[in-house]
Amino acid sequence: MTVLVAVTDNREGHLALVQAITEAQQLEADLVAVNLANTRLDISSLDTHGVNVTVVNRLPQDSQDSADVILDEITNHQATRLVIGVKRRTPVGKAILGSLSQTLILNAPVPVLAVKLPEGELTGGAFQLPSGIRQVTG
Length: 138
Known about the structure:
By secondary structure, the chain is of the alpha/beta class. Helices cover 30% and strands 20% of the residues.
C-alpha cells in the first residue's frame, strides 16, 4: 500500500505532507512525496517513524503539467490514496475552474484526502471582507 502526497511550497502543502505521514503511519503504508515546489524537499525535521518515504522532486524546468505529474506518479507507484492541501475559497472562487486541487479531486483514480488550514487561519492571499459585510460559505 502506498500513500502519495502532492507537496507545494505553501502552508497547505506542508499541512498535506504532515497529514500524509500520519496516514501512512496509520495504514502502515509507504509514502511518496511529489515535490511541486521550486526547491528541494527536506523532510529531515518531520517524524516519519515507521514510514518508508520516497521524495520525487519535480524541478521547475519540467514542462509537464503539475496535475499530470501527480496522476502519472499515482500510476507509477501504484498509490492507493492521494493527499493534497487545498485553499479555502470564497463562493466566487469555488465557481472558477482549473485549480490543481480540483483537477486532482476530479481525475485521481484513487481516494483523495483534501486537507485545509484551520478555519481561523487564512492564507496569505486570502480576501478580507470589509466590515459590515457578512461572509457566505457553502
